[in-house]
Design brief:
about 15% strand; two-stranded antiparallel ribbon; about 70% helix; alpha+beta; single chain; about 90 residues; 2 strands
């Protein structure tokens, strides 16, 4: 497993990281999205405190994650139900 040494700038700080080569673009994209949310909240709420801004971004990301997990769970249940229904139909045919 090959790793890369990169630096990601979040807000006004740079963070050195070691990442898998295949994960580099995903990690850089995540950093870009975080910075975009920071700028959005800064302009929307007029805040200059980076700790407050980062906490708001973290909260927003957690809400998005919970919503995504909920949708995934609903999709999984729908797939299980569909497979059970198909299995039942196939059992009747065989």
């Amino acid at each position: 497993m090959e790793t890369l040494a990169i630096r990601i700038k979040i807000g006004d700080r740079e963070y050195p990281m070691r990442v898998k080569v295949e994960d580099e673009s995903k990690i850089r994209h995540a950093g870009k999205l975080i910075n975009e949310k920071l700028r959005k909240y800064k302009s929307e709420f007029g805040l200059d405190d980076n700790q407050d801004l980062l906490a708001m971004v973290a909260f927003d990301c957690m809400v998005e994650s919970l919503e995504t997990n909920e949708v995934n769970a609903e999709d999984s249940e729908h797939i299980k139900s569909s497979l059970a229904q198909i299995n039942s139909l196939l059992s009747k045919v065989v």
